Amino acid sequence: MFHVMAKPTGAICNLDCKYCFFLSKEELGRERMGADVQESYIRQVVEAAKGAPSVTIAWQGGEPTIMGLDFFRRAVALARKYAGPGTTVEHTFQTNGTLLDEEWCRFFADNRILAGLSLDGPREIHDAYRVDKGGRPTFEKVMRAARLLQAAGAEFNILCTVHAANGNRPLEVYRFFRDEVRAKYLQFIPIVERVGEAGVTDRSVGPEQWGRFLNAIFDEWVRRDVGRVYVQHFDSALACWHGTGAALCIHQETCGQAMALMPNGDVYSCDHYVEPAYLLGNIMRDSLVEIAASPKQVSFGLDKQDGLPRYCQECSVRFACQGECPKSRFLTAPDGEAGLNYLCAGHKLFFGHIDRPMRMMSALVREGRPAAEVMGMLAEQERQRKMGMPTRARAAWEVGRG
Q1: What is the spatial distance between Cα 288 and Cα 47, in angstroms, rounded to a whole number?
Q2: Residue-level pLDDT at 87
Q3: Euclidean distance between the first and final Cα of the chain, in Å?
Q4: Phi/psi at 263 (nearest 5 deg)?
Q5: Other CB atoms closer than 10 Å to residue 196's CB: what's the count?
Q6: CA 175, CA 206: separation in Å to the nearest integer?
Q7: Contacts of 94 (CB under 8 A, 6+ apart)
């Protein structure tokens, strides 16, 4: 199986976010996806998934709402046309939210389209980097979109980038999403803007800062929000501790299953590698299945594993980290070997910090019990510790240590 992120507007966007790595891709063309490419994409993705219980049609930007609502009404109709009985089509849609109105939100709700809404935190934080083409703030428009989505009953998640403006304010950001936005699904993505051989911009999140950001949110989440708020990094990590492997591609052993589709039908190895050297083919003349299975793409995916430095291979948290995304492997390991991930120190902080509660939750799941029971276990353990009593919860704690 493979996943394709279709970019119907390419790099065209109505915003000018200061850290956006994709705006520079406009040299690849400013065309918009035509009906023929749209149909070919949907047909080939659905046909490739025949026999599978579900298939995902994913739209991203640039900013896909620029295409207009009729484009996506047709997309839904095409998916219904090509999907066979027994196959559920899941539509996902990543947006900055500034162009959403009641009609868009009703469309998402009526067609059960999962919307990803880009929001970096409270007003001051969000508006630090997420501005429009005139440099104006966008917070009010995005918050309006969140309220409209909720009013329509549309399912949505928050995609929050982590950078210099919010990297030291994790609980403020998390509580804002939980208590004010009332979001149940959160994704956090670190901003790493490379400069020169091994440098980054001032906007980039620091390695240890990234680890501390995740740790602070995890400590609050694991004590009060398990089963109520879903944080993608935490869910993916639990899968690693449970032995089923990370859900996030950046923490999988190999990659190459998530390709990027441009408006003219060109397919690239990855959203972060939309560059001439990683062009795989074009869906108007090449089969998407053959593109995904091509030696070039297979090699791209295996390079992640093959290029892992010895320092990472011998790391105690390799099973959960796997060297993260190759795009950020531009540091040198302590032994002098190239290919260490810029965020390595942060990943070590995070995965080391969550080890014990993750073992506890994994043990609960194996027993057929809700992972959310970890909250009561931790509360009891902490209560007994404060009272200076021998802790019965210690046994429950140790159960998770394997």
Answers
A1: 10
A2: 84
A3: 33
A4: -60, -30
A5: 7
A6: 22
A7: 58, 59, 60, 61, 64, 115, 116, 118, 159
Task: Tell me the C-alpha distance between 343 and 216, whole Å.
Answer: 17
3-class DSSP state for residue 337? coil
Q: What is the C-alpha separation between 107 and 357, in angstroms, rounded?
A: 40
* CA separation for the pair 271, 277 (Å, rounded): 13
Confirm if 291 and 297 have CB atoms less than 8 A apart.
Answer: yes
User: Degrees (nearest 5) of the Cα angle 9, 116, 183?
Assistant: 160
Are 363 and 399 in contact by the 8 Å Cβ rule? The answer is yes
pTM tops 0.85: yes
DSSP letter assigned to residue 61:
S
- Phi, psi for residue 34 in degrees, rounded to 5: -85, 170
The catalytic residues are 271
| Residue pointed to by tokens 């900013």 | 63
pLDDT tens, position by position, 212-266: 999 999 999 999 999 999 999 999 999 999 999 999 999 999 999 999 999 999 9
Q: What share of the chain is helix, strand, coil (3-state, %, to 5)?
A: 50, 15, 35
The pair of structure tokens assigned to 176 is 């804002």
Q: What is the rounded (10 degree) CA torsion for 163, 166, 171, 177?
A: -90
237: closest CA among 371, 342, 367, 368?
Answer: 371
Phi-psi region of 339 (alpha: psi -120 to 50; beta: other; left: phi over 0): left
Convert the pLDDT of each residue in 378-388 to its tens digit. 999 888 888 87
Of 59, 56, 63, 95, nearest to 79 by C-alpha is 56
pLDDT digits (tens, 9 = 90+) for 360-399: 999 999 999 999 999 999 999 888 888 875 555 555 545 4
